[in-house]
Every structure is written in C-alpha cells, then in structure tokens.
Amino acid sequence: MLHTNPPHLKYTKEHEWVRDDGGGVFAVGITEFAAEQLGDITFVELPPVDAQVSQGAEVATVESVKAANDIYAPIGGVITAVNGELEEHPEIVNQSPYENGWFFKLEEVDAAELDELMDATHYEAFLKDQ
Amino acid sequence: MTWIPATDAERGEMLAAIGVRSIDELFATIPEHLRLRKWQVPPGRSQMAVQRILAETAARNDTGTLSFVGGGYYDHHIPAAVDALASRSEFLTAYTPYQPECAQGTLQAVYEYQSAVCRLTDLECANASLYDGGTAVFEATTMAVRQTRRTRIVCHESLNPLYRRMLATHTANLELDIVDSEPASLDGAACVIVQNPSFLGTVRDFSDLAERCHAAGALLVVSFYPVSLGLLKTPGAMGADIAIAEGQSLGLPLSFGGPYLGIMAARQKLIRKMPGRIAAATQDAEGRRGFVLTLQAREQHIRREKATSNICSNEAHCALRALIHLCLLGREGLREVAVQCHAKAEYLKGRLIEGAAGIQLLNDGPTFNEFAVRLPADAESVVERLLDRGIHPGLPLAPLGAGERTDLLVAVTEKHTREDLDTLTEALEQALCN
Amino acid sequence: MQLIFETSRPGRRGVRLDPLDVPEATLPAEFCREDAPNLPEVGELDVVRHFTRLSARNFGVDSHFYPLGSCTMKYNPKLADAISALPGLAGLHPHLSSSPVYHGCIQGALEIVYETEHLLAEIAGMREVSLQPIAGAHGELTGALLIAAYHRAKGNKKDTIIIPDSAHGTNPASATIAGFKVVQAPSGADGTIRLDAFKNVMNDSVAGVMLTCPNTHGLFEPDVHKIADLAHEADALLYYDGANLNAIIGQSRPGDLGFDVMHFNLHKTFATPHGMGGPGSGPVGVGERLAPFLPGPRVTRTEVGFGLEMPPQSIGKIAAFFGNFLVAARAYAYLLCQGDEGLKNVARYAVLNANYILARLKDAYDPAYDTTCMHECVFTATRQAKAGVRAIDIAKALLDRGFHAPTIYFPLTVKESIMIEPTETESKQTLDAFCDAMRAIAQAAQDDPESLHAAPQTTPVGRLDEVRAARELDCGCL
Fold this sequence. Notes:
heterotrimer; A: alpha+beta; CATH 2.40.50.100; 3-stranded antiparallel β-sheet; globular; C: alpha/beta; Aspartate Aminotransferase, domain 2; Aspartate Aminotransferase, domain 1; 3 domains; 7-stranded mixed β-sheet; 4-stranded antiparallel β-sheet; 15 helices
C-alpha cells in the first residue's frame, strides 16, 4: 500500500513521526501506516502535560478493537500540550494522521536525539522491509 | 470405548485418508524414549459404578441438619428455577463468546448481569466476572496500583482473613507495601481495602474513609456481601471507587469452596483498568441490537504481558446463576431476604446474649446476618458437643487467627426458622451450663 | 430481544418467602441504602421464558460441533452433572475445613480432593498436585509463584521467564503478574522452537521457561528434552502449559519430558463443561523440586482418616479452600470412568480426528506447516485472502452452515490462521460434514466471495459493529 509520508517530518521504527513546529516546539503523532495497521481507532490515552519524558519512554496508548499499541517518546523532552480532541474523537487519528491527529507536543528536546530518527525516504524503505 | 464414537471400520477409513497405517504412526514426532512406559491408573468403570462410588463418598460428608456456619459463604435459599435454567446445555456447554453472532444468549446475559451488578452497587461499570471474592481483592489491588502508579496497599481490619492471606500469596513476588492498619496519613497509598459487613459481621459506613482516600489520591475498595445490599448502604453511595464481592450468596450452592463468583464493579473512569471480560451493546448492519465483548485490548489474548490481568476463563456460568437468582428475587425480593436475614440474626443475638449461659457479643457496632460471640468455654469443644445433634453452631475463630479460642462466628439466613434459632439457643445453653 | 429489565412491571414478584416469624428489627438509617435495588420486577414465568429464549441464541457442544483450536471442546458427560449435584458435595460448607472440630464432617470431600490430586499427578508424571488454582491462567500464576519461591529459597537472583512467540497470551500475562520479566523465544519456519534461538535467550537471569507441548501450531516440540536440560543446567525450571494435554495424555507425560511444574485444564482435557467461559479449574502439578512450596493446606491421609496440613515452605493460599471443588469432582468422575485404557484412547483419537481433517482439507486450504499434526491442525487462509475472503469470513460462513467456527487469528505467528481442534468425541460423520462445509466455503471464496462477506445470515444478528461498541461503551443498562 502506498503512503504519503510528508517529507518534512522525522520517523521512528515504531511508526511515530516528529514535526518541528518552530520555536523549540515538536509535535508527535503516529504514521498513516500505523493507523492503518490498527484499523478503526477507538481510544487514545494521552500523557499528563508538564511530564518530563526520556527518549523511548511509553507516553501514550492507542487502541483499536483488536489491538493496543504503546506510543513511545521519539525524543526526550517536556510534554507541553496534548491533543485533547482525540479523547472524544479517536477516529481523527485515522482520518488525519499527520495533521489533526497529532498526539502531544514536546519542548526542551535534545537535538542529537532528533538526528537519530529517519527521514521520509528512509522510513519508506524501512516500511518496504516490513 | 467411553465417549469415543469411532468404529474400527471408520478408523481404517480415516487412517487410509491420512495415508498412515496406524494411529501410532501419528505419534512418531514424540521421541521413543519420551513415551509413556507405565502408569498406575486403575481400569475404567461403568457410569453406574462411578455414580454409586461417588454417592457413597458424598454421603460420608455431614452437611449438618442445622448449620450456622458462615464466614463469607452462606446457605441461602436457591429457587428451583435457577438450576432448571442454568443447567440448559446451550449455556453449560458453550465457550467464551468469541463468535458473537452464535453467542447472543451468553452476551446478553453478561450485559444484563453487569447491569444488575451496577444497580446493586450504585457504580457505573462492572465486568463479566472474576474467580471469587478472594482473587477479586488481588485484582482490585493491581487495578489500583495501575491507576495510581503507587505501591502502598492498606488492608482494613474488617477484611476476611482468608482474603488477606490470599493477597499475600498472590503478591509475594511483587514489590508492594501492604500494611494492615490505617497509617496516620494515606498519602502515597494506592488504595484502602475494606469489607462491609466486616468478617466478624459488623456493619459500617465508610463514607468518611472514602473522602480521606480521595483527598490523598488513593482509591477506596469495598468488598461487599451481595445479599446485604438489599438493605445496606451501597459501595457507590459510600464513595467507593471499586466494589468487589464473593458472589456465592446469589444462587450458588456452598460446593465446599467452589465454583464461586468474583464480582467487580467500578467508577466509569476506571473501566479501561478493569480486569476480565466486558460485554457491550451495539448493533448489526440492519440496526438490530446485539452484544459483543469489548475493550478486549486490555486482555491477555491481545495485550499479553501488558494486559490488565492474566484472567481468561472466568466464572461466566456462575454469573448467569447470580443473574437468574437476582431476577427471580427482584427488587422487593432481595430487600425482603436481607430484611429477614437481619431480623432473624437480631432475634438470635438477643436470645444468646440475654440467656443465662454468659455469652458475650464481640461486635462493636450493628450487625447484619452474622455476629461474633465469646463463649464461657472453648469454642471447638462446644461445637463438638453439638455435632452429635447434627448442629453446626458456627465457625470457631481461633483457627483462622481471627479471635480467641472461646470465640465463635454465628451466621443466620432467611432459611432459618424461629424454631431453628430457639433450638440453637437451647443447645448452646445446655452445652455451656453442663 | 428485550432485556429482562425492559420486561419489568412495578409490583410484580417472582419468588416469595415465608412471612417473617421473628420480631422486625431496625438498622440505623445511616447504614441503609435509600431505595431498594433497582432489579427487575418480573414473575417466575417471565424469568423462565426470558432465559430459555436466551439459551436458544447460543451454540453449545450439545447442539453444535465446536472445533475451537486450543479450547478442547469435547463432549461433557452428563454423569458429571449428576455427580456435581450430589447434596453431600453441593451442600457442603467450605469453612468446615477451617476448624479441626469439623473435619469429621468432610471426610468424603477430602477423599475426593486427595484421590483427584493423586490421579492427576500419576497421569502427568508429577510428584504432587494441588487443586487450588481456579482456572488455567490461575494455575500459570501459581506455577510462576512456585518458581519464584524456589529461587528465593535458594538465594538465586533470577527475574526472567522465557516464553515462545506462539504461546497463549495468558503465559506472558501470568509471568508478568507474578513479578517476572518476559523474554520471547521465536519459532522457526517449521513451527517449533529453534534450539539456537532458545540458547540465545537462555542465561543465568532466567528463572523459568514456559512451554506448551504440543505447541499452539499443533506440533510436538522435538527438542523439548534438550530445552529441559539447558534450563536445568542453569537452575531454571520448566513449566508445562496443560492447554494441549489432550494431545499426549496416556502417550507421554510432562514429568517424563522434563517439566518441573504444570497446570491442568480440567475443563479441557477432563471434560468438565466450559460454561460460556467458566468456571474452569487449573490444578497445578509439581516435581520434586517444587513440591515443598505447594499452596496449602494439603490433604493428608492417616490411619484415622483425612486431615489437613500446612507445609512449612508453602507459598500460602492461592484459593480460599480447595479451588473449584465441584469442577474437580466432575473431573474425578470422568477419570474413574475412563480409567487406564479410556485415557490412553483420548489422545489417540483426538490426534486421529485432527489429522483426518488436515488430510481432507489440505488441498482446499494451505496448512500452516507441511507435516502431520497432533490434536489440532492449523491452516492459513492467505490463499483465500488474495480473493478478498479472510479467516473471519470463513468463520462466519461456517455459522450459517451449522458449525461453530474454529479459532481464528491465533496463533499470532500464522497469518489469517484457522486453528481446528475436533477432539476425540466427534464422529466421522460430523467431521465429514464439517469438511464438506469447509470445502464448499473454499469453493465459494473462488466463485462468489461477496456471498461470504454477508455471512452469517441465519444467526439472530448479523456481524456486529465492534467499533461502535468500543466507542460508545454501553456496558450496562443503569
């Protein structure tokens, strides 16, 4: 299946994306591939705002009827915002994984950790191997 | 062959279809040296013989002609319709409803059971069942730990000592801090676990404790006695976050300890932390109402090591019995059973305490259907004297570590008549005054 | 169909009590609920009709072939129902075991516990058995706690349990709940554990290894004794998940294979009814190393009769009394009837039946592994999936043809898996009818895939909207 993974984002092997929103703010969500694999998403559990998280920490959960996945922090930082809309309308993640379906925003991140992530080309190559 | 229908001819046809000459060939993947050589299993017997043997064995038990043993498990009347309906093999021989279209009977019954438990407890959600009252304490504990991310558990003195021991066994390899008296501060506690009525029968209102728990960010877990909720203040009304129970009193025979029923209900916000199966209403493409298992992503078959519990088989058939029992009793019936249990226990309590034998009451508050007494003699020796008359006068508390050698726990249900209560009073007085 | 709550009419009553024959008593209002519980107000006939109609909306073993893989849905003998209803068993108070003064009243029950434990131990080649665990997963948890107690007593610092990727979900969940870390051992292309992969994860931190044998692919683990040796060299203990015991009972014993601890599923191998998902019973068996740690009290036999004893190193109470006693009594009756020869035939015919199905279906569906199987066979519906027909469509189409569906989408290691366990109690006619239906569905998947997407059509409801159920969460009528 073809996915259009925006070129300006960074990706993880756990199928999360990170977007530089400028001003030291980074948004995190899950990729279109991940959303499709889960099927109709029925629930999203978001982390508390102000939580300090390290790279790889479990910070959120996303559930469909037959699966549940943990969302890991692609990079460490402080959670400064969460997308509360997803709690009432988890289907947004299926409809708009790269825009309205963002999960949370991080600040005070370590730029070196960001460099470890894949760009869109590498992520697509990674998907082909799956 | 018992319960194997294959004829010799059919076996031959099947082996031919498979392309092997004998059944033994199919076991070739088991290395020869790992095969069974001999075992000491007796030859099979006829159904007639087995029925006779087990009827004789069962007859060597003495259920007593008059029993006042309770301690969390009670001999209530079970209407005949409970057995008649629950023994329908469409219920008894079905499996977990993984194919909902051919298990709507099961799923609707689970949904109705969950509804009945919520109405009984004044809480918002319930699961399809846990194993029993004791394991429900463990499940509530781990649920509170997951919800609060704290590890201190406070067990109130009211809790059944068997449940407390089971909790210790189940959590032996977890890093939990379980304390047995209420600390000066509940800060840092995941939950406080109480029981109402207490193991010794005392009725309390834990509303104040609920407030203190919530102020400290802890949950209140109330273990309740289902029949008592025909009369007593509910866990929900007290402010409990999780309510659990041994459901045996709802249409299940005493059965020497099982199968029983673990009941669990909780606040809606805790539903995703709940262990076990949950049924939910939905519809099919034509808009017909139907029921499915939901939130399965919590469970072990999907979530594996991250599941909210390891529970798979539950006590679904026992939950069905409880539901049928509650429906037969109904709103007024359950209240009447509770009122009668209480009134009869009060009558017996009064007669025992006011009698000349010197029996003292140990409860420091009102009681429901059970109370603890201190006898002027060793409780077990008193019980022994009454056994000859077929009377089981109650549960000696010392062997359970729940009292002195003189202490006896006495339970009454709606099945006891005034004459039964008078018989016990007289028998005890006779035993104590001689 | 209406909910029982929707049939309620104010003032209607079902069962009535005798009038109160003692003075009324009062309890202070602060301790009482405000209103009577809002239970249905219905008559006895309302209840009888409601639940009779509900029962008609179920498939059970008594009405339908139920080839659910890993669930062993064999016939549940009616004899066992009669045994469990004996008043001396059903009416016996468990607390009579709590005080020695009452032990004379429970001699029959203690004998059943004692004899059942000993028979199970002999059948599995274990030293001792405890009936306490209430279900299979509870037995797993008990086993994991026994392993933890063993290592604690020896001062071993071990915190990990190895579990194959094909294991039942309860294995990792039980190990975690018992306080262990879980490491997965991958299956090889032939569906069994790869010994080299196992060696990679085996180290000194490993406290135990949990195996199902035959595994959930229906295959006997050929290296099971080598795995046992490797584990024992590192003082790790080997756990046998008894879910698939029906495949080897009377042919090979877990104890002889090198297992130290196991659970039995009395509701699978020993024919007690599944009851819509429970009650089950999950007795735990142990070898020499773990026997001192078994849950207590233990039933002992002396010259004066049966008594109870708490072993000094016991992990304590895993159940309040003796587990699901009446389920054990049913299993005991089954064991006495079957006896030596009967039990040996159980696995033989369970394996024959599974291989017959495999033989009859292997050109219509792709077997997951190209070999004979044990008590269950696993297919993959990937061929059908290319035509747009998935395992779930095949399952639903079976319902329309009068069969319960096999287990689907498990094991997780096989794509579009269809796992069929016929058991020994089914006749060749039934197996043939099932195979005919499966072959007809495979044909329909080629000719008219759309027709399968519409299944089931003969059940009380069609496919239900599970997404709606999870999003709206209507879990009770409050």
